[in-house]
Design brief:
Order of helices and strands: HHHHHEEHEEHHH
Subcellular location: Cell membrane
Family: Belongs to the CDS family.
Strand content: 5-15%
Membrane topology: Multi-pass membrane protein
Number of domains: 2
Structural class: mainly alpha
Distance between the termini: 52 Å
EC number: 2.7.7.41
Largest sheet: 2 strands, antiparallel
Number of helices: 9
Radius of gyration: 19 Å
Keywords: Cell membrane, Lipid biosynthesis, Lipid metabolism, Membrane, Nucleotidyltransferase, Phospholipid biosynthesis, Phospholipid metabolism, Transferase, Transmembrane, Transmembrane helix
Number of strands: 4
Length: 279
C-alpha cells in the first residue's frame, strides 16, 4: 500500500513537471510533447478497442494519423503552411476506409467507426491545443505563442479533480452519476468547481490578457466538460470491462486515464473562446 502510494506520487510529480515544463519552455517542446501524447493515446485507444473480438482497427496507422493531425494543425495555426497541410491526413482517412474493402475482416463497419472515433475523440482534442496556444496578432500580422491558455486548461482540470476528491471524501453524499461512476458526488464536483474558479482569479491577476469574468467562465466550462469527459471514459471502460486504459504511467493507469477530462474540455474551451470573440 505504502509503495503504491509512493509510486503514484513520484509518477504524478514527474508527469506534472514534464507537462508544465514542456508547455512553458518553447513551442518546439510543446509540439514534441503533445505529438507523442496524441500518438500514444490514439494507439492506446486502438489497443482497448481491439481487445474485443468484434473489432480490429489499425493501431499504427491511426496513431500516425493522430500525430500528423497535431503537427498539421500546429503548422496551420502558426501560419507556416496553408490548408494543403491537411491533404496527407485526408489521404490517411481514405486509406482507412478503402483498405477495409480488401482485408475481409469480421466487422468492417465497426472498424471504420472506431478508426474514425479514434481521430474525433482522441486525436482532434489534442490537435486543438494549438488553437489555444498560437494566436494571430492582426496589428503586427504575426503569430505569437501563448502557453498560458493551454496550461490553464490542465491546471483547472487538476484542481477540479483534487477538489472533487477532497470535498467528496469529506462530505460527499449525493451520487453524481451512479450508473457510470459510483464514487463521484455532487458535493465533490461542486467543490472541485470552486477550486478551479478560485484559481481563475489568480490567472486573471497575473495574465490579464482576458478579464476576470472570461477567466472564470473558462474555468467553469473546463470543469463541466472535464467532468463529462471523465464520465465518457468511465462509460467506455465499463462497456469494455476494464479498470485502467493502460499501464504506461505507473500507479496512474494509461494515457486516456490521465487525459480523459481534457478530451472534452479542450474542444469546449476552444468553442467558448471563439464565441467570446464574436460577442
Amino acid at each position: 500500500m505504502k509503495s503504491n502510494f509512493l509510486q503514484r506520487a513520484i509518477t504524478g510529480v514527474l508527469f506534472v513537471v514534464v507537462l508544465v515544463g514542456c508547455i512553458l519552455y518553447s513551442p518546439l517542446s510543446f509540439g514534441i510533447l503533445f505529438t507523442i501524447i496524441g500518438a500514444l493515446s490514439v494507439h492506446e485507444f486502438g489497443h482497448l478497442i481491439n481487445q474485443s473480438s468484434e473489432v480490429q482497427i489499425n493501431k499504427t496507422i491511426t496513431a500516425l494519423g493522430g500525430a500528423y493531425l497535431f503537427l498539421a494543425v500546429m503548422g496551420f495555426c502558426q501560419s507556416t503552411i496553408g490548408a494543403q497541410v491537411f491533404l496527407p491526413y485526408l489521404a490517411l482517412l481514405l486509406y482507412l476506409m478503402i483498405t477495409e474493402l480488401y482485408l475481409k475482416k469480421k466487422n468492417p463497419i465497426g472498424n471504420w467507426a472506431f478508426s474514425m472515433l479514434s481521430q474525433l475523440y482522441v486525436a482532434l482534442p489534442f490537435a486543438l491545443l494549438n488553437v489555444l496556444a498560437f494566436q494571430y496578432n492582426p496589428t503586427e500580422s504575426s503569430v505569437t505563442y501563448n502557453p498560458i491558455l493551454p496550461l490553464s486548461i490542465f491546471v483547472f482540470i487538476w484542481l477540479s479533480d483534487t477538489g472533487a476528491y477532497c470535498v467528496g471524501s469529506l462530505i460527499g453524499k449525493h451520487r453524481l452519476f451512479e450508473r457510470i461512476s459510483p464514487k463521484k458526488s455532487w458535493e465533490g464536483s461542486i467543490g472541485g468547481g470552486v477550486f478551479s474558479i478560485a484559481s481563475s482569479f489568480v490567472f486573471a491577476h497575473y495574465f490579464p490578457f482576458m478579464p476576470v469574468w472570461q477567466w472564470a467562465g473558462l474555468a467553469l466550462i473546463v470543469v463541466i466538460f472535464g467532468t463529462w469527459g471523465d464520465l465518457t471514459e468511465s462509460l467506455m471502460k465499463r462497456q469494455l470491462g476494464i479498470k485502467d486504459s493502460g499501464h504506461i504511467l505507473p500507479g496512474h493507469g494509461g494515457m486516456l486515464d490521465r487525459f480523459d477530462s481534457a478530451l472534452l474540455a479542450i474542444p469546449a474551451a476552444v468553442v467558448y473562446l471563439y464565441v467570446l470573440t464574436l460577442l
